[in-house]
């Protein structure tokens, strides 16, 4: 496709015609604006939240180093016996059956010490930032 054919297809019969050029430029600007709008709407996506998992294996809690208050916190029991996670102040507690995973509520920043009330020697602390 040579220049004349390209101009003909995009703008009009006469590539030298200023009206054709203006129309072509207007179409370019219009499509840029439309694409621009589409792009900006996809960049305003909400903040992403991650999954932070506390695991239980061999009668021990394994806690992630840092958990954000926006994270979805899960408790996964990889043992073959039932466990539990209970805050030391007993404000929250949840049982987790063998091989199961349960969701925990989102937590405000702070340090949360907890234990398994079935096996009181299982102790851990979760830090939420
Ligand atoms: Cu336990």
UniProtKB/TrEMBL annotation:
Pfam families: Cupredoxin_1 (PF13473). InterPro entries: Cupredoxin, EfeO_Cupredoxin. Residues 37-128 form the EfeO-type cupredoxin-like domain. This is Unannotated protein. The lineage of its organism: unclassified sequences, metagenomes, ecological metagenomes.
């Amino acid at each position: 496709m040579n220049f004349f054919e390209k101009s003909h297809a995009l703008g009009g019969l006469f590539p030298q015609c200023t009206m054709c050029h203006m129309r072509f430029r207007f179409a370019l600007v219009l499509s840029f604006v439309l694409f621009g709008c589409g792009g900006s709407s996809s960049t305003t996506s909400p903040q992403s939240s991650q999954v932070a998992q506390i695991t239980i294996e061999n009668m021990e809690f394994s806690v992630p180093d840092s958990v954000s208050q926006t994270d979805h916190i899960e408790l996964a029991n990889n043992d073959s016996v039932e466990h539990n996670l209970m805050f030391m102040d007993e404000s929250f507690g949840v049982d987790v059956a063998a091989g199961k995973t349960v969701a925990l509520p989102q937590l405000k920043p702070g340090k949360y010490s907890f234990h398994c009330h079935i096996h009181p020697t299982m102790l851990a602390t979760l830090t939420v930032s």
